[in-house]
Amino acid sequence: MKEEKSFILVLSYIVLITLAILISSLYIGFTNNTTLINSIILLVTFVFSLVIINILLIIILIIKLFKKNNLNNIESKILYYSVSLYYPLVLTITKITKIDKNKIRLIYTKINNLLIQSKNVKLKPEELLILLPHCLQWSECQFKITNDIDNCRKCGKCDIHKIIELKDKYDVNVAVATGGTLARKWIKETKPKAIVAVACERDLSSGISDVRGLPVIGVVNDRPNGPCINTKVSIEKLEDAIKFFIKGE
Ligand code: SF4
Q1: How far is the CA of 136 from the centre of ligand 1 (A)?
Q2: Ligand 1: which atom is nearest the Cα of residue 161?
């Protein structure tokens, strides 16, 4: 199943659960004459009706985004904030229904990327930070690139040397992080106006929600050797993301 369909399926489950609670509340309301209970039922009906309308709106906007990629500013904002609001609940439902969590995380990143790319952004190269995971480095490499990526000797055993070529070509900041703490430290130090982040689906989705307010384009890494070791990244996708931020292409 495609990622957006999995996401919409989970949202549909939330609508059904909300609807079931709503109908149960209305039933209790009809069979009860207590003013307090009726007031609570009225409030529950109001809130849950809003939730259902909001989720149906998200589903319509996701379909529109993936089919036409032309959401206006208000639609983009509604989708961005609504998806962020329901994302933890969506992940919980995913766990119960055994839908692949990575598909949901990937769609969250894709929605985020499409929303960022629908804006007009043009930054100076030094305002952009490329944040890389340490697992991109060849596991037996002896050079410490987490302090300074230029410590790489460009032997070609991993993708780091190609990323340094991109760094030199576009003159952007590039940092390697071993985890969330180091990533936050790099963000604090370089104070970027936007980030291109490379990571797995899980780290990307949590990173994007961590730095809410700062535009991030996420590029999912390839893991031909399994998770967290000798991972790869599409240099083409990385370059496209850099060009979007600094050339507006
Ligand atoms: S390309 Fe750089 S980081 Fe990768 S293994 Fe060679 S020296 Fe190490």
Answers
A1: 9
A2: 1
C-alpha distances in angstroms, 247 versus 109, 124, 234?
Answer: 22, 9, 19
User: Using CA atoms, how far apart are residues 180 and 34, in angstroms rounded to an integer?
Assistant: 52
Alpha-carbon gap, residue 225 to 136, rounded angstroms: 11
Atom of ligand 1 nearest to the CA of 143: 8
pTM beyond 0.90: the answer is no
Which of the following CATH numbers is that of domain 125-247: 3.60.60, 1.10.10, 3.30.1490, 3.40.50?
3.40.50
Report domain extents, the chain.
Answer: 3-117, 125-247
The alpha carbon of 221 and the centre of ligand 1 are apart by a number of angstroms equal to 17
Output the CA 95–ligand 1 centroid distance in Å: 38
Structure confidence by residue, pLDDT tens digits, 167-211 = 999 999 999 999 888 999 999 999 999 999 999 999 999 999 888
